[in-house]
Amino acid sequence: MEIFLTYLKVFAVGGLVCLIGQILINKTKMSSARILVLYLLVGVVLEVTGAFEPMKQFAGSGVTIPIMGFGSNLAKGALEGVAEKGFMGAIAGGMSAVAAGLTTAIVCGFVFGLLSKSRSKKI
Known about the structure:
Elements: H1 2-27, H2 32-49, H3 52-59, H4 61-64, H5 67-85, H6 89-97, H7 99-115
């Protein structure tokens, strides 16, 4: 029963994040790219203020998998980089913290690009 409740929390929080994004798409003139950046910045702000960790403890991958988790990891790496190497560590720390995710996205994009057949949109 405990595993069911865990999955329910993850699904509910992740679904709420998606619901908010869909409402922003439907009710505003925001493009999906702007919403993506907004979620990234929300993850950064939540990490810097210390609010992301309690959310992660409660919802697990419901908040870490969406783009907010990427923003959180980027901010956490930048903060650790600043602590270790000063100002220039902010860039290096942030990039090293998200390197695995970025590498996976690039490799998967490349593989699917090779396997897919491109075609023009019909207007």
